[in-house]
């Protein structure tokens, strides 16, 4: 695995987007992680949080109040803009197209989930290639493992929450078993790394 401080400058020049997958235990880790993102953060961040199909906008509104850059729900055909945080809507897969716009899908669940982390990660890997960072956080399924492997195979950076620090370690462990990742970090370390990109 790489040294964090040595690679911050390189990361700020190389990357365009961050995709994040999180499931059970997500609210607390997202609150901590997104609070560390500075107003100068130059990348787009796109998040799949496994949600109930009828989930309201509480999560987005709650996090938007605590983050220095806008947090909102992604919309069909919307361009993926830097310095914004986007969430997949409940009960839709979220994809990123080659022209860096969002696409929503009601295709069948993947890994028992819609939105699926793998669906976002795999489409983002095709759209961004080596200019993508993939992050897998706490969760109680294997969703995200295959997608993170695709990101790594496309030349992107793979980061996983240290399972010892995850409320639900199944998802981080599945990602680590699937992929030789670049960093295994606590949420505090991850926040410092991402903040350093800005």
Would you write up a description of this structure?
This protein has seven helices and nine strands. The protein is of the alpha/beta class. The strands form two sheets. The protein has a seven-stranded parallel sheet, sandwiched between helices. A two-stranded antiparallel ribbon has the order 5-6. Helix 6 links the parallel strand 8 and strand 9. The chain is globular and about 35 Å long. The two termini are 22 Å apart.
Backbone shape: globular
The CATH level-2 architecture is identified as 3-Layer(aba) Sandwich
Radius of gyration: 15 Å
User: What is the CATH class?
Assistant: Alpha Beta
| Strand composition percent | 15-25%
Total individual domains: 1
Query: How much is the average pLDDT?
Result: 92
* Residue share in helix: 25-40%
What structural category do the secondary elements indicate? alpha/beta
Widest sheet: strand order?
Answer: 3-4-2-1-7-8-9
CATH topology: Rossmann fold
Q: Major β-sheet, in short?
A: 7 strands, parallel
* CA-CA gap between termini: 22 Å
Number of helices: 7
CATH superfamily: Methylesterase CheB, C-terminal domain
Strand/helix succession: HEHEHEEEEHEHEHEH
Q: What is the count of β-strands? A: 9
Which stretches are poorly predicted, pLDDT < 50 over at least 5 residues?
none
Quick overview:
The protein has 198 residues and is an alpha/beta fold.
Characteristics:
198 residues, Rossmann fold
Secondary structure layout plus pairing:
Elements: H1 8-14, E1 17-22, H2 26-35, E2 44-49, H3 58-64, E3 71-73, E4 85-87, E5 93-96, E6 102-105, H4 117-128, E7 132-136, H5 145-153, E8 157-161, H6 170-178, E9 183-185, H7 187-197
Parallel strand pairs: 1-2, 1-7, 2-4, 3-4, 7-8, 8-9
Antiparallel strand pairs: 5-6
